[in-house]
Amino acid sequence: MNDSYLLVHFGELSTKGNNKKRFIECLDRNVRHALREFPALTYRATHDHIYVGLGDVDPAPAIAKLSQVPGIQRISLAEGSETSLEAIREKALAMLLKEGGKSFKIDVKRIDKSYPLSSYDLTCQVADYVLDHSSYSVDVHHPDVKLRIDVQEGAAYLHAHDYPGAGGYPLGMNGKVLLLLSGGIDSPVAAYSLLRRGIKAEAIHFASPPYTSDRVIDKLTDLLGVLNTYQEKIKLNVVPFTKLQNAIYRYVDEPYCITIMRRMMTRIAVGVAKKERCLALATGESIGQVASQTLESLQTINEVTNFPILRPLATEDKVSIIAKAKEIGTFDISIRPYEDCCTIFKPKKPKTRPKLSECRYYESKFDWEPLVEECIASYSPLFVEDGEVKKPAKKSEEEQASAEATK
């Protein structure tokens, strides 16, 4: 036996108890999808790892793909061996000689508890063999090479190189949220944070033509194309907001416009989220970053609903958000000069501590409910899959009736 493998380590899944099997099955599906361009790979999922058999496949691009899959703590590049002491010792020596260096440490994990040697005894046997057949010395504190040996039933796996994974939970295990996507720096980073926690994202955007450019939609789909790295298919729901926005600026004094706009957007997003079977809303808001993100503003905006609203960047500062945007590849797209309606209509002196009574007064001045319902009824969906924009296929009358019946 002389095969190469990638060992996928689960990380946080070890805390899942009786639900661990479901999480591993989900991660196994996600791993296979991420590596779909390598049809020669083989897979085996166990309670402890997912084993990806490489065969003749170059490990580097496969590792790069796996490092972006949520739910993976780390990936090890391993060599397989038979479980006999002789086979393990010879494999360990060959791998260490290939690595070079002067000192080593052996770390054994005996997953197969029926194996005749204890972890300690196997460690000593392998180390003694290496010392007798090489110029290596043992250094348990700061070795040049740390060789790990996992003994499974029927096979052993030896590895000296680990690569970091994305961490978090397998995508899809924690439900789906509707993300308010503006096109700025923050919301794509918020989306990435959610994806790492196993939450699927669907997006909503409020378009106000002719005040906003059609290029904003191109910008959004490009952002979602980057996020396809982590979620293969993302739906973008585009809401026509011009009519409601004009009404807000007709009846509401300028300092309160953003607050009222956010309240309306929240109402609409909740309506769309329920239609799309999302379990919560999500935003890229960071406390105190702008006028509409003070605690007073958030409280006033939240008053319109008891639907859950997630704010994964709530305590992050702008510097850390920008750094993460650059890391995941969304920053250069986010800074393109195409603005959303909140930016274009930003008042000169927005209210940082809006009063709920004032908001209710302004909302009483016009009939906003039909406008909100119109927005919920008339949003247009787009799908971004593998970086490409796809419009949904039209449903037949029969399919539409069936979909309505299941709501």
Summarize the structure.
The chain has 407 residues and is α/β, with parallel strands linked by helices. It contains 15 helices and 15 strands.
Written description of the protein model:
The chain has helices spanning 20-34, 59-66, 85-99, 119-132, 186-196, 215-227, 242-251, 254-275, 295-302, 318-328, 331-334, 341-344, 356-363, 369-377, 397-406, and strands spanning 4-9, 42-45, 49-53, 74-81, 103-110, 137-138, 145-152, 155-164, 176-180, 200-207, 233-240, 280-282, 309-310, 380-385, 388-390. It has 2 domains: 4-164, VC0802-like, CATH 3.30.2130.30; 176-406, Rossmann fold. It is 40% helix and 21% strand. The chain is of the alpha/beta class. An 8-stranded mixed sheet has the order 2-3-1-4-8-7-5-6.
SSE layout and pairing:
Elements: E1 4-9, H1 20-34, E2 42-45, E3 49-53, H2 59-66, E4 74-81, H3 85-99, E5 103-110, H4 119-132, E6 137-138, E7 145-152, E8 155-164, E9 176-180, H5 186-196, E10 200-207, H6 215-227, E11 233-240, H7 242-251, H8 254-275, E12 280-282, H9 295-302, E13 309-310, H10 318-328, H11 331-334, H12 341-344, H13 356-363, H14 369-377, E14 380-385, E15 388-390, H15 397-406
Parallel strand pairs: 5-6, 5-7, 9-10, 9-12, 10-11, 12-13
Antiparallel strand pairs: 1-3, 1-4, 2-3, 4-8, 7-8, 11-14, 14-15
Helix pairs in contact: 3-4, 5-10, 7-8, 8-9, 8-14
